[in-house]
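Work through this:
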Amino acid sequence: MRLEFTDHRQDPEGLAKALRISREAVDIYQRSEVIDLHIDSYIWHRIWGYDLRRRHGHGLLGARFYSQVDFPRILEAGVTGATWVITTNPLRGEGDRPGVFERNLAGLKGLFGEVHEQFAVVRNAAEYRAARAAGKHGAFLGVQGGNAFDRDLGAVEAIPEELLRVTLVHLSTSRLGVTSSPLALAGGGGGLSDFGRAVIERLNAKKVFVDLAHISRQGFFDALAVHDRSQPVLVTHTGIAGVHEHWRNLTDEQVKAVAALGGTIGIMYQSSFLGDSPLGGRLASIVDHMAHVIRLVGEDHVSLGSDWDGAIVPPRDLPTCLELPRLVEEMLRRGWGAPRIQKVLGGNALRTIEALRG
């Protein structure tokens, strides 16, 4: 099956006019790797049958919470790669979760298989580059919620090689450790469990990225204490507390710790986490958070981590992936040069992936 979409590379001037941005912004965007570390759209396919192969509009809620991404719009937006995520249901019994993950993984891979002329599931930077050379989107795969594998360490050992990363905890505390969320279903203060430490050791051995989005601050540093110092770590979708203090955001100390391991931090697009009104966010706030990371640790450690379709309310001027070149316009407005912009759009993500997996 081949998807239809508008290829804006054929008319960059038209795209610039449509988005009310400069031709320079479009040109930089179109010659960049554009890699998003966290897209959560598959959850809507699982729950409601949202067809990722079909082009959608803004949905019933005006691109709030869902309908921000689908395969045709990803191609039209020129997003060259992304981590597509399977989110773990914490209410499912631990004995069932590994099998459910396997079925969901097969389902997600099956969707990409149906559009194999334009999408390729990739495991590393080399495979991503091969997909790009063939004119395809490079689809990395990830899991949000390490409790998908908390039955025993055998479930961790069985993690398939297609999996790029595991977000250790999500919005609930699990056998692995404590979430940063006030909506935790169990537990209170605290960090990583002994089982969680063992899971990190297994993930390091398998060269699966440990993603420290969502974990409590104590759990974050507990994880780094056992993490292989020769491997980079990810925080795929977050805000920065130095710009807006929030339970979901990283402190300056955490940012420095990620950079020290050569990792990267994906800035997410949820308006309230960025410090804006939930219904009145602006994409300039995303760049504020990126700019803080750059001031703190340099331009090699910040990336895109949208959390598209993860029940987020994105900025009003960035409702879907189709408006992404507007981020470049804002970066140019702040005096950022093309090399820095290209690192943020995808270069830093690709460098980090290559450092772990080649």
Q: What stands out?
A: Residues 246 and 273 are 7 Å apart (CA to CA). The longest strand covers residues 137-144.
